[in-house]
Amino acid sequence: MMTIQYISQQTDTCSHLDNIRMACAAGCKWIQLRMKHADTQAITATARLAKEICDAHGATLIINDHPGIAALVDAHGTHVGKEDMTVAQARRIAGPHKIVGGTANTLEDILRHAADGADYVGIGPYRFTTTKEKLSPILGLDGIRNIMSQLRVKIPVIAIGGITAEDVPGLFSTGIQGIALSGLITHAPDKRQLISSLYQTIAHAITSNS
Question: From the annotation, which residues make up the binding site?
Fold first, then answer.
C-alpha cells in the first residue's frame, strides 16, 4: 500500500482534474477522486479522465462513494464514508478485485470495515478540516494512538483530516501505514518539493519506528 493518498479538491482556479494532474506530476501515486456535490454524470466523466491521468503517471485511482463508477471506468477501487454503504456492499458493486477502503472514527468502525473485507481504513479526522462536512469527533494524535494501541486485526490504517507535514512523525509513531491529504497538496506552491519531502519524512519515520 502506498503511504500518501491525495484526495482531490476543486478550487477557484483549478478543477479536480487540474489538481489531480498536478499531484500526479509532482509524484503522488495514490489518488482519490472526491466530488461530493456533483451528479453521477459529472463524476463519471471526470473519473474517466482522471483514470487516463493516473494511468499515464502509474498512479492508483480510487473513486469516493461510487463503486459503480469505479467499475464503469475501471478505476483501481473505491472508498466509502462512515455513513455510506458498507465495504461489503461496495465490493459487490465494484467487483471482487477492486481496492475498497472505508472511513472510520472509532475502533469499532475499523473492526466492522475489516470484517467486511476492507483493503484499508482511513481513520480521522485528525483535526478540524474545511474539506469535509459533517465531521465525526476529532481524534487528534492521542485519539489515533489510543485506537491503534487497541487494534488487534491486521489491516492498513491511514490517517486523514487536516494533516500537516509537521504531523507526520507523530502520526507514524502510532502504527498507521499512510496519510490522506487534500488541502496540504492542493495549496502547496511547490507540490513536487512537498511530496518528495513527505515521502522522505515518512520513510524516516517508518525506519525509526521499526
Answer: 32-36, 64-65, 84, 103, 129-132, 162
